[in-house]
Design brief:
heterodimer; A: mainly beta; four-stranded antiparallel β-sheet; B: mainly beta; seven-stranded mixed β-sheet; 0% helix; 51% strand
Chain lengths: 115, 112
C-alpha cells in the first residue's frame, strides 16, 4: 500500500520569499504524483501532476515540483510567494490497485504568507 | 463550465435522521469518489465508483452508502448519521485517476 507524508503541517513565509513544501511517499511500484491547493471554503484544485518524463513539473500560479525517485520525494516550490498563495496544499499519489487507480492524499500543509 | 456540483453546502442534522448529499458532474467522467476531510487527517476516501453500477469501498466506508445509477450522479447516503460523521465532505470526478480529480465545493455536515 502507498502512503504520503507531508512533513510540515504549517509553513509561514514572508511575501516575495521562496517556499518549499515537502512531500515524501512510499510505494513498491511506480506512482503518479500530484499537488492540489485548497483555498478557504473551497474544494481542492489541481496544481500540477507528474506522470512520466521530465522530473521537473511546472504547474499553475508559478508553482513547480521536482520528482526525485531515489529519495521518493515530490517537493513543491515557488520562487516568490504572494499573499494570494495562502492556502492549504495537499500532496497525493496514485497507483493501480486491483484494477482501480487509487489516490491517497497527504495530511496537508498550510502555507501562511505574511505581508 | 466543467464542474462537480454538491448539495447542500451546509447541513445540520440530528443523530439517526437519514440524509443524502447529492453530487453531479457534467464532464462525462468515469471515475467518481467521495472523501471526508478532518483536521490533521487530510482527505480520506469513503467510496468510489469506476462507472455506472460499479462502486467499491474506500478507506473509511462504515456508516455510508452510495449508488451510481447514472454516469453523472453519485449521491452519498448516511442512513443513520452519528456525531463522529461530522466532517467536511467532498465529491470528486476524473476521466481516470491518473489525470487528477475535479472537486466539488464541499458539504459541511454537523450531526448533533
Amino acid at each position: 500500500a502507498q502512503s504520503v507524508t507531508q512533513l510540515d503541517s504549517q509553513v509561514p513565509v514572508f511575501e516575495e520569499a521562496p517556499v518549499e513544501l515537502r512531500c515524501n511517499y512510499s510505494s513498491s511500484v511506480s506512482v503518479y504524483l500530484f499537488w492540489y491547493v485548497q483555498y478557504p471554503n473551497q474544494g481542492l484544485q489541481l496544481l500540477l501532476k507528474y506522470l512520466s518524463g521530465s522530473t521537473l513539473v511546472k504547474g499553475i500560479n508559478g508553482f513547480e515540483a521536482e520528482f526525485n525517485k531515489s529519495q521518493t520525494s515530490f517537493h513543491l516550490r515557488k520562487p516568490s510567494v504572494h499573499i494570494s498563495d495562502t492556502a492549504e496544499y495537499f500532496c497525493a499519489v496514485s497507483l493501480w490497485d486491483g484494477g482501480y487507480q487509487k489516490v491517497t492524499f497527504g495530511t496537508g500543509t498550510k502555507l501562511q504568507v505574511i505581508p | 463550465e466543467a464542474q462537480v456540483t454538491q448539495n447542500p453546502r451546509y447541513l445540520i442534522t440530528v443523530t439517526g435522521k437519514k440524509l443524502t448529499v447529492t453530487c453531479s458532474q457534467n464532464m462525462n467522467h468515469e471515475y467518481m469518489s467521495w472523501y471526508r476531510q478532518d483536521p490533521g487527517l487530510g482527505l480520506r476516501q469513503i467510496y468510489y465508483s469506476m462507472n455506472v453500477e460499479v462502486t467499491d469501498k474506500g478507506d473509511v466506508p462504515e456508516g455510508y452508502k452510495v449508488s451510481r445509477k447514472e454516469k453523472r450522479n453519485f449521491p452519498l447516503i448516511l442512513e443513520s448519521p452519528s456525531p463522529n460523521q461530522t466532517s467536511l465532505y467532498f465529491c470528486a470526478s476524473s476521466r481516470t485517476g491518473i489525470y487528477g480529480y475535479t472537486f466539488g465545493s464541499g458539504t459541511r455536515l454537523t450531526v448533533v
